[in-house]
Amino acid sequence: MFYAPRGTQDILPADRPYWRYVTEQMHAVAALFGLQQIDTPIFEEAALFVRGVGEGTDIVDKEMYTFQDKGGNELTLRPEFTAGVMRAYIEHGMHVLPQPVKLYSIGPIFRYERPQAGRYRQHHQFNVEMLGELDPAVDLEVMSVAWTLLTRLGYRGLSFQLNSTGCPVCRPAYRQALIEYFGAYRNRLNEVDLRRLAINPLRLLDSKEEAAQALLDGAPHSSDYLCDECAAHLATLRSYLDALEMPHTINFRLVRGLDYYTKTVFEVWAEGIGAQAAVCGGGRYDKLIEMLGGLPTPGIGFGMGIERIAMLRYQVDDIRLDIETALPLGLILNELLTNSYKHAFTEAAQGEIRIELSNTAVGHYRFAYHDNGTMKADPDKSGTSLGMRLIQQLTRQIHGTGSFSYANGYGYTIEFMDLEQRRRLDD
């Protein structure tokens, strides 16, 4: 018997309604902000990610799926979207388009990391990039895409974790301060963190190693080393966030996991979703396109894992599903019009059959149809012919439970609650 490879999962039909709803919201929010969809290959030249993401990062050192094809080319399954999107921007001359160029992607990425809840070796991401503008107002716009999407998906208590990693002008002094600080504790660092200290000491701020964690409280803060331009950029962005009443906290440990970030880095945190409050993150990468062979072009973006969003859906208060999108209406209508009620509907043609869909409580939905009181009485008052078959199909689709009632000879109401929602409410 075969099983799905470790770190992968099957997305089953029962889960697809919510996935479809989430991705439809992603497309809708992207359209609201004027983003255009771009799809890049699942695999690229391995050197693209080594140069773009950076040596010394966990992604390049440990997590990339790299292989040689039959032509001897070194290829890598994409571990993140940004480098591939930048390659496409350069290759197709998108610098001649009106700037900023606003792009988004939805699709799988691949990282060989330890599987855990909501984190898989093949997982899916919503990725946003805005290219060609230095103004911190674009930082705000990108961050607002994430904020708007998560709000639509029902997340509450949203806030930003924010930091600036500086730029090539001011980062060298900060880098040297970190080398001197952590260098004094070399005998306490393991081999992994010693390599980070030699290649990119900023990565130590994101270290998960116990010895390094104990040293972080005393580590230098990037804000103390920012040049005037970087300090002004951060201050302006914070003023915009304050004006829109978007809570944010400066987190000097926040560097994200990729070397190409400059200036702004951020994460979106939400309340009520457990110890790992971060839902997505990203930042600015003003030198990346130039590093990959293009013209100097600033940019900023973020990535959001769809598996984590799907995993958290039962922990989110007041999550709202669009019932018309989330339920199989085609199946319902087909059942209504092809069963033993078809004759009754035909006789009641002078009436208007009305279908109502409404969310009456968290996870509790009502479906009803009426014929304005003109439909003749059901010869089978138990509702077995239509009602039970319809309920059975609905409950199979949502893994829930349902009830059927007959009212005044002309209308039916079917109510059901997703069992996972019921367990959460019962708890």
Quick rundown:
The protein has 427 residues and is an alpha+beta fold. The protein is built from 16 helices and 15 strands.
Your description of this structure?
This protein is α+β, with helices and mostly antiparallel strands. Helices cover 36% and strands 22% of the residues. It contains 16 helices and 15 strands. It has helices spanning 16-32, 46-53, 58-63, 82-91, 136-152, 171-183, 191-199, 210-213, 228-243, 288-291, 306-311, 323-326, 329-338, 342-347, 384-398, 419-426; strands at residues 36-37, 43-45, 65-68, 74-77, 101-110, 122-131, 159-164, 248-250, 262-269, 278-284, 299-305, 354-361, 364-370, 400-407, 411-418. The protein has an eight-stranded mixed beta sheet with strand order 1-5-6-11-10-9-7-8. The protein has a four-stranded antiparallel beta sheet with strand order 12-13-15-14. A three-stranded antiparallel beta sheet has the order 2-4-3. Strand 12 and strand 13 (364-370) form a beta hairpin. 34% of the residues are buried. Mean pLDDT is 76; it is low at 317-427.
Unreliable parts: 317-427
Chain-averaged pLDDT: 76
Q: CA-to-CA gap between the ends?
A: 37 Å
What fraction, in percent, of the residue positions are helical?
Answer: 25-40%
Total of DSSP H or I helical runs spanning 4+ residues: 16
